[in-house]
Amino acid sequence: MKTIYHSADSRGHANHGWLNTYHSFSFANYYNPERIQFGALRVLNDDTIGPGEGFGTHPHDNMEIITIPLSGDLEHKDSMGNSGVIRNGEIQVMSAGTGIQHSEFNHNKNEELKLLQIWVFPKIRNVEPRYDQISLPKKENDLIQIVSPNKDDDGVWIHQEAWFHLGNLKQGWNGEYQLKGNDHGVYAFVIEGKIKIGSHELHKRDALGISETETFSITAVEDSTLLLMEVPMSY
Questions:
Q1: To which H or E segment does residue 91 belong?
Q2: Which of 16, 23, 70, 153 has its CA 20 to 30 A from that of 29?
Q3: How far apart are CA 52 and CA 220, in angstroms?
Q4: Domain ranges for the chain
């Protein structure tokens, strides 16, 4: 098993006042030639957005964009005619394809919004743009599938052979993850708590890139929230 460890404090960081953001991979003014992407996973941004603040209308194309609110409410509007609010316990996906424009704002005027925004390179370019958001099942001590390439599977779907799982795990939980594809890797990101994978002990916001293996074991050292992102390493 090949691993690459990314500690929370090794991420790129920018504090714009209204936006406090950490970048797992090169993004905006943060550039690290050794951290451009992990396979098809291009962006993992950990954002805190001030009350009533946000990103004005801006474009995207040819990217699968997944947003997971961690706390607070995200107000969304796009050029496809979608508008609404995405809350903790929900997940949003956009296939930017041939091109979209959208805006993202903190819906609340008196509390911060915390979210993860994730970009994955698609396996097909220039698809028709699409949007979806769903509520996630409330389940503890299990890895819940939240993203897949299959329209009829659990979670949202994207134009890539990628599977994401989210787990709210109690201290002492043990499990094994089996990769679904050859030449796939998993980027494990600890949202909260402490997780052990192999010989690596991961704390809050630490990450571990895992490849060249069919399976790996996971132990929750304490109550934890864990995000696993399985993606093709070449695409």
A1: strand 90-95
A2: 70
A3: 36
A4: 2-232
pLDDT digits (tens, 9 = 90+) for 142-161: 999 999 999 999 999 999 99
Per cent of the chain over pLDDT 90 is 96
**Dihedral Cα 165, 70, 30, 78, nearest 10 deg:** 90
Sign of the torsion formed by the C-alpha atoms of 166, 160, 35 and 99: negative
Which residues in 56-65 are b (16+ Cβ under 10 Å) and which e? eeeebebbbb
Give the homologous superfamily in CATH for domain 2-232.
Answer: Jelly Rolls (2.60.120.10)
Tokens 């960081």 -> residue: 13
pLDDT in tens, 89-136: 999 999 999 999 999 999 999 999 999 999 999 999 999 999 999 999
